[in-house]
Amino acid sequence: MRVSKKILVAPAALCLLALTAGAAAQDSPSPRDKLAVWAGHWKRHGEVKETQFAHARTFDYDVKCSFLPFGAYMACSSVSLMPDPNHGNRISNTATLFYYSDVDKTFKYTEVHPEGGPSGGIARVDGNVWIEPREIQRQSGGTADAHFIYNFVAPDKILARFEISADKGAHWTVVDEFVDTKVG
């Protein structure tokens, strides 16, 4: 029986294409790989601006971030290195979990404070910039839009700020500016 070379070449080419596509899919980075920018031991130094939202002061935090076992979650724990001016000598601390949702293809965060429990949302990631939108309670009643913006300018340095908008995002007031420097 004589078999055409074209009939044998076509399936072989399809198999080769399938193997190449599979290898490319394995080589392409997972969205979870973006979480790795947070990993490490960071020293945070910042300044609270004198605004309608806060009084001027400086602050320092120690922040440690690492993947939880199996690599699906980046856990960050931070502790203030200074007494909280609003609460006497109590040291404030926070735990934040960053993760990627395969369901809705977004990065999410959940933050836990000892007083007040968890809060969270969807982090927008654009290259080296992470934006964490928030809604905060205003002292005068109601809520205001806010966000943290983290710009990873180098593997060991983050320039960041916290901004609040009282007019649904038309204007933003910088409340905090801070720098995180990786120390380990």
Describe the model.
The chain is mainly beta and 184 residues long. The chain has a single domain, classed as Lipocalin (Beta Barrel). It is built from one helix and ten strands. The protein has one helix spanning 5-27; strands spanning 40-48, 57-67, 73-80, 93-101, 106-113, 117-126, 129-137, 143-154, 157-165, 173-182. Strands 1-2-3-4-5-6-7-8-9-10 form a ten-stranded antiparallel β-barrel. A hairpin with a 2-residue loop joins strand 8 (143-154) and strand 9.
List keywords for this structure.
184 residues, mainly beta, Lipocalin, 1 helix
**What proportion strand?**
over 45%
Any low-confidence stretches, pLDDT <50, length ≥5? 1-26
What is the arithmetic mean of pLDDT? 83
Distance between the termini: 69 Å
CATH superfamily: Calycin beta-barrel core domain
- What gyration radius follows from the Cα positions, in whole Å? 23 Å
Give, in order, the helices and strands.
HEEEEEEEEEE
* Helical run tally: 1
